[in-house]
Amino acid sequence: MIARLSGALAEAGADHAVIDVGGVGYLVQASSRTLSAIGPIGGSVMLFTEMQVREDSMTLFGFGSAAERDWFRLLTGVQGVGGRVALAILSALSADELQRAVASGDKAMVARAQGVGPKLAERIVRELKDKVGGIALGPGAPAAIPAGGAATDAVSALTNLGFRPAEASAAVAAANDELGDGASLDALVRLALKKAAR
């Protein structure tokens, strides 16, 4: 339904943000990791999103990277893991840390998340171990890419060249981290292409 939002950050709380897109404020639930990376109120942001529709509610979840969104989808596929628990896990562990924990069967690491007991942590590790092997998740969760700048154009450029959106955004985020926010579009695209090719 709604795959991503680009707009101005209207408000941010402990577990949510409101993104103003063309005069409409979208309330998105997000991990503390994403909320700390999206920048100041009034700034431009782009978040990947996942919408959950329940009998009595519709909730929009926001993510600073495609990798974080991919993990959210995997986590909520485990029995007993709802959206809020998945966000708690993604607040406690980065995508890289979560991948390592699942691959090595480290249920204690998953249990560090608020609201995740030992039994649930064990179920998450057990059920996701097989699934993660077959899914090409993007590398760790990079900082949210500021919308409207060279980074957004660079993601678009890589996508037009045939890269998957997740690969493109991860490569651009890594290039943006290395070059800094003032990088030109040309420099970003060149470095992102090198990173994506590795």
TrEMBL record:
Family matches, as InterPro entries: DNA_helicase_Holl-junc_RuvA_I, Hlx-hairpin-Hlx_DNA-bd_motif, NA-bd_OB-fold, RuvA, RuvA_2-like, RuvA_C, RuvA_C_sf
Top-level division of the source organism's lineage: Bacteria
Ranges where the Helix-hairpin-helix DNA-binding motif class domain occurs: 73-92, 108-127
Stretch list, region Domain III: 151-198
Domain I as annotated region, ranges: 1-64
A GO molecular-function annotation: DNA helicase activity
SUPFAM superfamilies: DNA helicase RuvA subunit, C-terminal domain, Nucleic acid-binding proteins, RuvA domain 2-like
Region annotation Domain II: where it falls in the sequence: 65-142
Main subcellular localisation: cytoplasm
Keywords, in A-Z order: Cytoplasm, DNA damage, DNA recombination, DNA repair, DNA-binding, Hydrolase
Subcellular location: Cytoplasm
Similarity section: Belongs to the RuvA family.
Function: The RuvA-RuvB-RuvC complex processes Holliday junction (HJ) DNA during genetic recombination and DNA repair, while the RuvA-RuvB complex plays an important role in the rescue of blocked DNA replication forks via replication fork reversal (RFR). RuvA specifically binds to HJ cruciform DNA, conferring on it an open structure. The RuvB hexamer acts as an ATP-dependent pump, pulling dsDNA into and through the RuvAB complex. HJ branch migration allows RuvC to scan DNA until it finds its consensus sequence, where it cleaves and resolves the cruciform DNA.
Free-text note regarding domains: Has three domains with a flexible linker between the domains II and III and assumes an 'L' shape. Domain III is highly mobile and contacts RuvB.
Assembly and oligomerization: Homotetramer. Forms an RuvA(8)-RuvB(12)-Holliday junction (HJ) complex. HJ DNA is sandwiched between 2 RuvA tetramers; dsDNA enters through RuvA and exits via RuvB. An RuvB hexamer assembles on each DNA strand where it exits the tetramer. Each RuvB hexamer is contacted by two RuvA subunits (via domain III) on 2 adjacent RuvB subunits; this complex drives branch migration. In the full resolvosome a probable DNA-RuvA(4)-RuvB(12)-RuvC(2) complex forms which resolves the HJ.
Name this protein carries in UniProt: Holliday junction branch migration complex subunit RuvA
Source taxonomy: Bacteria, Pseudomonadati, Pseudomonadota, Alphaproteobacteria, Sphingomonadales
